[in-house]
Amino acid sequence: DIQMTQSPSSLSASVGDRVTITCRASQSISTFLNWYQQKPGKAPRLLIYGTSSLQTWVPSRFSGSGSETDFTLTISGLQPEDFATYYCQQSYTTPPTFGQGTKLEIK
Amino acid sequence: QVQLQESGPGLVKPSETLSLTCTVSGASISGYYWSWLRQPPGEGLQWVAYIHSSGSTKYNPSLKSRVSISVDTSKNLFSLRLNSVTAADTAVYYCARQTNWNYEWDYWGQGALVTVSS
Question: Å from A13 to nearest chain B CA?
């Protein structure tokens, strides 16, 4: 299985900050990388697919980049509703696998 | 508005079979891929299996010997069975719609907590 490693595991930030979460794959996955947002007690929501394409509900302060093994999720200008756990996920091969998650907390 | 709803027992005894159903509303199940994923309490996400409305399936190799997934297009639902469960199978089980053969899930159920305990 392809291992997905996120860093950091947790992050404290303030409203208005710019934050970056990184995700590294154990082998090349081209751009088959997705990001999900999960709030406590809720199902994950697809945030970004194909490395950089935003779902229709996602505001433009979110962006994704990367290729091969290294990927980033950036949030420019944190809003209160952005505090959540974020997961990266590779869709390159079976089984699809997730990172361990990055918990974004309010400072 | 596509909605998915998991249903099934919340408590299963060790060595028995976990059975869950996902009822889809707001859209036809036909023409899409449908997955089960799970998340142990406080942990990350694991994909379990998918099925296409045509009946083709794919399973996570780590669970393949114990899992089966089925679809009933007449009732617009699909189901999961996981046998010989242990405490390690305790998790919130989610059903979700895949956008295509690729592993991207755009609609999710609210999740169903299944606890394996005697």
Answer: 22
Task: Say if the Cβ atoms of A42 and B110 lie within 8 Å.
Answer: yes
Q: What is the pLDDT of residues A47-89, one digit of tens each?
A: 999 999 999 999 999 999 999 999 999 999 999 999 999 999 9
Give CA–CA dist B107/A44, Å, rounded. 9
The pair of structure tokens assigned to A71 is: 């990927």
- For chain B, give the number of residues: 118
Please name which of B116, B63, B55 lies closest in space to residue B91, comparing C-alpha atoms: B116
* Across B29-56, average pLDDT: 96
**B63–chain A nearest CA distance, Å:** 11
